[in-house]
Amino acid sequence: MASVPSGEAFSDKQQAAIERARAEVRERAGLHVSVYVGALGAQPRARAEQLLAGLGAAGADVALVAVDPAARRLELVTGARAARRLDERSATLAALAMTSSFGSGDLAGGIVNGIRMLGEHASALSR
């Protein structure tokens, strides 16, 4: 499953690290993670939900990480089946880890760490 487009926000090396993290989580935890980096507009949560809905039926298995760096916003949205594998606490912990990295200027590293945390929590909750 492909990511929601993230534009030109990352170098090739950073993009590869994000893709590796997504693949690892998909293989290890069975969780599909999609990433969007760009403007989320005046209603960031609604826009993130719209992006997830745009993935069609496959969106039910996706955890979407939507980041608007300019507005300093992060939204984590899960499809119906993915939500069974990630609870609110797990999403909150991943969001805190990501925003901590974002605050120090590491957008790509924050996304990679957040993806990995989501995968760890999905694995733990499915046991």
Q: Could you give a quick summary of the protein structure above?
A:
This protein is α+β, with helices and mostly antiparallel strands. It contains 5 helices and 3 strands, in the order H-E-H-E-E-H-H-H. Strand 1 (32-37), helix 2 and strand 2 form a beta-alpha-beta unit.
Structure description:
With 127 residues, this protein is of the alpha+beta class. It has a single domain (12-125), classed as Roll (Diaminopimelate Epimerase, Chain A, domain 1), CATH 3.10.310.50. The chain is 53% helix and 15% strand. The chain has 5 helices and 3 strands. It has a 3-stranded mixed sheet, sandwiched between helices.
Assembly state:
single chain
Mean pLDDT: 90
Strand content: 5-15%
The helix/strand series, from N terminus to C terminus, equals: HEHEEHHH
Named at the architecture level, the CATH assignment is Roll
- Any idea how many domains? 1
The tally of strands reads 3
- Major sheet summary line: 3 strands, mixed
Poorly predicted residue ranges: 1-6
So how many helices? Answer: 5
The N- to C-terminal Cα distance equals: 24 Å
Write the layout of secondary structure elements.
Blueprint: H1 12-29, E1 32-37, H2 44-53, E2 62-68, E3 73-78, H3 80-83, H4 88-103, H5 107-125
Parallel strand pairs: 1-2
Antiparallel strand pairs: 2-3
Helix pairs in contact: 1-5, 4-5
